[in-house]
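#lab-general

N.A. 3:47 PM
ok so I finally got the sequence cleaned up, no stray characters, all 186 residues accounted for. can someone with queue access submit it? mine expired

B.Y. 3:52 PM
send it over

N.A. 3:53 PM
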Amino acid sequence: MRTLLVALFCGFLLTANAQTDHPVQKIGYAESDYILSQLPEFKKIDSELKTHGAQLENQMKAKYDDYQAKLKAYQGMPATTPDAIKADKERELAALQDNIEKFKQDAQSSYQKKSADLMDPIFKKIGKAIEDVAKENGYSFIINPQLANGGDILLYNDEKYNISDLVLKKLGVTPTPPATTPTKTN
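B.Y. 4:20 PM
back already:
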C-alpha cells in the first residue's frame, strides 16, 4: 500500500511538472542501512549494544538458573515435608517467577533506551548530511528505498541517483565498494 502511495505521489509530481513551466524535479535515494554500515561510530555503537545485550542475557540466565535450582530442590522435597515449609518454598518460587518477568521487561526497556540514546545522534547527523547533499546537488526528493519491515518503497531506481556515497563523503567517511561476485569466463 505504501509503495502504491509513493508511486502515485511520484507520478503526480511528474504530471504536475509536465503541465507547468517549472524544471523537472530531481529525485534521489539514500540507503540508510548502507550508510550506517559504513560509519565507524555505528560499528562502535553496534558493539556497545551487543555487549549490553549480552550482559542482560547473562543476568537473565543467572536468575533463571537460580529459579530452576530452587524448583528442583522443591520438587525433590520428601513427602513428609511440613506444609508450612512447602508453602514457604512455593511463595519463594512465585516471587522468583515474578522477579524474572519484571527483569525481562526492565531489560527490554533498558536495551531500547540505550539503543535510542546511542543511535539518535547518528540519525540526526545522517539526516543533516542527506539534507545538505540534497540541497547542494539540486535534489527535490530523497527517498529511502527500504522500509523498516524490509519492503522497498521503489520498484525501480536508477543507480546514478544513489547519493549514499556522497553522504558518506560529507560525513568524512571514504566508502568501501561492496563485495562483488567474480564473473566466470569460459
